[in-house]
Amino acid sequence: MSNRKLNVFLPLLFAVVLALGMFLGHKMPGSNNGGATVFFAKPNKGPLQEVMDLIKAKYVDSLNTDDLQQEAIDGLLSHLDPHSIYIPPSELQRVNEDMEGNFEGIGVEFNITADTVNVVSVLSGGPSETAGVQTGDKILKVNDSLVAGNNITPDRIRKLLRGPAGSLVNTEILRQQKKIQVPIKRGVIPLYSVDASYMAAPGVGYIKISKFSATTYDEFMKAIRGLDKQGMKKLIIDLRQNPGGYLDAATRIADELLGDDKLIVYTKGKDFPRTDYKTKRPGMFEKGSLAVLTDEGSASASEILSGAIQDWDRGTVIGRRTFGKGLVQEQYDLDNGGALRLTVARYYIPSGRSIQKPYGKGHDDYDEDIAERYHHGELVNKDSIKITDTVVYKTAAGRTVYGGGGITPDIFIPFDTSRFTPTLTAIYTRNTFSNFAYQYYTSHRDAFKSYKNAEDFIKSYQPGADLFNEFREYAKKDSVPGMDHLTPRDEKEIHQRLKAMLARQLYRTEGFYEAINADDPMVKKALEVVEKEKD
C-alpha cells in the first residue's frame, strides 16, 4: 500500500478501534458502577502493605518505617520454621562474603584491647604483608579516621579496612613507640573453611572443616592431596561446631569418600519435587579407615556428610548428637537490598531419615534445645538422648540408626563439664588466653624463631613455670577470680590452652588444632578406632 493510501485509511482505522474500545468498555464488569475495568485494575496489595502505606501517609508522629517493616517481617516469619529468615541490607554483604569464602580488604587479624587495635596476625602473601605490616603493630588511623579510643568497635574497623580490591587505604601504625605511615593496596582475602590438616599419627590424617562455603571442596582436595603425599592411609574429619553451608560442598566431599552411584541425600517439599544427589566419580579416599567427629554444634551440611557416611557404613561417627537442621533454604533478593531465606524442602539421608528436629513448640523452645540437652543430661550420658522418631531405620549393613533430629553418633564421647570451673569460665569469657598469648608473643618474639613449623613447635615447646606465673599475674589484673587457688585440673587446662594459643599466634588455626588435639578425648578415641581397623 502506498503512503498516500495509508494516510487516507489511518483516520478511519483509528475511529473503528476507538468505537470498538468504547463498546467493549461498556460491556466489561464494573463499567456501570464506576469501577475500573480489568485492563486497569488496581493491584491488590494485601492488608499488610495497606497498613504500612497508611502508617507512612497518615500517622501522627514520624516513624522509622524501615524498623517497622523489619519487625513486621520478623513477626510473619516467626510463624514459620526457625530457619526462614530475613537478612536486612546492612547484613547481606557480610553474610554473602562468609559463604563465598572471600572478601576484599587488607588481610590482617586484629583484636581490640585497652581501646587499641592490635594486629594479631598478618595473612601470608596478603596485601598487609606486602606493605610491611607486622604482628604486634597497633593501628592508630585508617585514612583520616582515628581508630583508637572508647568508641572503636570491631565492626567499625572492618568497614574502614575493607573496600574494593586495588583501592588504596592509608594507615598510621604505632610500632615500638614510633608512628609510621603505611599505605596498603586492598586485595581479595580468602576466608578459609578448612582450618587444619596434618598427620595426627603415622598414616593417619586429620582435617578440620569449620563451615561449607564456596571454596571448601577445593580446600579439602588440597588438604587430602597433601596428606596423601605424607603417607595417609586412614582419615579423621572433624565437623565439630560446623554450622553447615552450601549443600554442593558437602555432596562433593561425600563423593570423594563414597563409592560410585551411591545416594548421598535427597530433598523434598510440598512444592519442591524430590531431587536425589548421588556420587558421580571415583573419589580420592573411597577406601581406608574413616572417622567423623560431631557435636551439638554440627548442623545442616555437616549432618548430610556425617549421615551419609553412617548410613553407608563407610566410617565411624564419634562424638555427640548433631544439631538437627535438615531444612533447605533458597535465598531471594529483595528490592530494598536485603534478602529472604525461605525454607522450601527437607533433607533426607540415604536411610530415609529426616535430619530436622521438631520445631512445633515455637522458636523459643527450638532455640533452647541445646541448653535443654545439657540440663536433661544428654551431653554427658548417651542413654539420655531423646529418640523422638519411632520409625526403625537401617544402614546399608543392617545396623539400626536413629531419626528424630540430628545424627546420633556410633560412639558417644561426653561433654567434659569439669573444664568449666568459675575460674576457667572467667578466663574464657574475658578472652584472657588470647590477649595474653598476643602480648607474650610480641614481647618474646625472638624466643620462638627456632621452631621450623607447627609440628616442631608442638613436639618441642613446653610452657614452663615462668610462663605460667606471668599468666597468673596477667589474669589477676584481668579480674579473674581464684587464680591463687587453682585445682590440678585447672592448671593442666591452662598449660594446654596457653600452648595452643601460642601455636595459633605462630601458625594460625593449623597450629592451634594440632596443639589442642594432642589432649582431646574425641581425637584420641578416633585415633584408637581407625588404628584398630585394617587398611
Automatic annotation (TrEMBL):
All copies of domain PDZ, residue ranges: 92-162
Name by which UniProt lists this protein: Carboxyl-terminal processing protease
Protein's UniProt keywords contain Metal-binding: yes
Cofactors, names only: Zn(2+)
Gene source species: Chitinophaga polysaccharea
Superkingdom assignment: Bacteria
Coiled coil: none
Family indicated by similarity: Belongs to the peptidase S41A family.
GO CC field: outer membrane-bounded periplasmic space
InterPro entries named among the record's database cross-references: A/AMP_deam_AS (IPR006650), ClpP/crotonase-like_dom_sf (IPR029045), PDZ (IPR001478), PDZ_sf (IPR036034), Peptidase_S41A (IPR004447), Tail-specific_protease (IPR005151)
PROSITE patterns linked: A_DEAMINASE, PDZ
BP-aspect Gene Ontology terms: proteolysis; purine ribonucleoside monophosphate biosynthetic process; signal transduction
Pfam families: PDZ_2, Peptidase_S41
UniProt GO molecular function: deaminase activity; endopeptidase activity; metal ion binding; serine-type peptidase activity
PANTHER family: CARBOXY-TERMINAL PROCESSING PROTEASE CTPA, TAIL-SPECIFIC PROTEASE
SMART domains linked: PDZ (SM00228), TSPc (SM00245)
Keyword terms of this UniProt record: Hydrolase, Metal-binding, Protease, Serine protease, Zinc
SUPFAM superfamilies associated with the record: ClpP/crotonase (SSF52096), PDZ domain-like (SSF50156)
